[in-house]
Amino acid sequence: MAASTFSPVPTPSSPGASVALSGGLVRPMNAPDIPSGVVVVVDGVVTAVGAAGSVAVPEGLTVVDTTGKVVLPGFIESHAHLGVSEEARGWAGNDVNEMTGPNQAGVRAIDAIDIDEEGFRDALAGGVTTAVVKPGSGNPIGGQTVAIKTWGGRTVDEQVIADAVSIKSALGENPKRVYGEKKETPSTRLGVAKVIRQAFIAAQNYQAKRDHAAKEGTPFERDLTLEPLVDVLTGKLAWDQHSHRHDDIATAIRLADEFGYRLVINHGTEAHKIADVIAERDIPVIYGPTITTRSKVELVDRDVSNLARLADAGVRIAITTDHPVVPIDHLILQATLAVKEGLDPVTAIEALTVNPASFLGLDTRVGALAEGLDGDVVVWTGDPLDATSRVDRVYIAGREVYTHAGGVRERAERFED
Description:
21% strand
């Protein structure tokens, strides 16, 4: 499939700050590494990246010495339930699935995110500055996702990067189990695919009626469930397809072909079995989580080495913890283990930065250190793929929000210089 053509709606984040990071090994991720590099952030936006001596640092800017350290863009967790499936809060903090009907395209993850959940602090400790928060996989169509910063706002709205990213959908065991237990459709893989087809046909009909009404200037009754599905059909939103088994992935591809939307495979446990098919069609895969048990049948072939198999076949990959399935600060650990099992180290870091930014249309804001992008910068004590390295400092929009020595800046300090 072709590169992304959709454009998530950019949303202003909280106020930015200014800083220069100088002397460390800078890895921009969209350009060659820069030994003894400099990253300049002004008012929350990167204004210069280059070698020391070749980059002018504005007078009066705070300069942080990063000599001996590694400077990277903040990582992106591209499939999280951060803040909607709250850790240690039981049913009271579980808002990940609206399982009262198989098509929940009208619900939005942002309406259930608690930014005080401990996972946001863990994210910073793991160098994760962006998370794409998604509804769960209990329904064939689970709802709308949102891309947010992991710190920096008084409310979640002030952390939003893009409020229109994708629709989460699920194939396989989860929806058939949920509705099979209710003895309702869908109770089989056949039924799950049917629900998705019916939803898109209804959306096509709705779009035709809406366009006709607009042309004729006649009233039209909007539908919260069908409107976002039209956005998928027109390319504004991606289709995040939860699918583990290779046959479910084949169904995902079949449905995408029928309706012409932008498909992103999520989880992809058996994607390596049809890696050549996925690569030929340039369908990205957000793979993981990898450090979990084989808790259900469709996870039997879970293997960290599958990431290398996919990449070797030419599949563009990202890596996910599926937080809280795996704690979000273990995102880099999963990449490290994948490298141990054959994944190229550069590809491993790309799978946490430029790749997910590209898959989900966020690359005008995050994913690299480049002029015009957000000043989301993480300073590591060494190579992040080395298990002995740790996050030293985290900046979001140029504002220091975490240090290893001092921990996370509290919310009352978020807007202080």
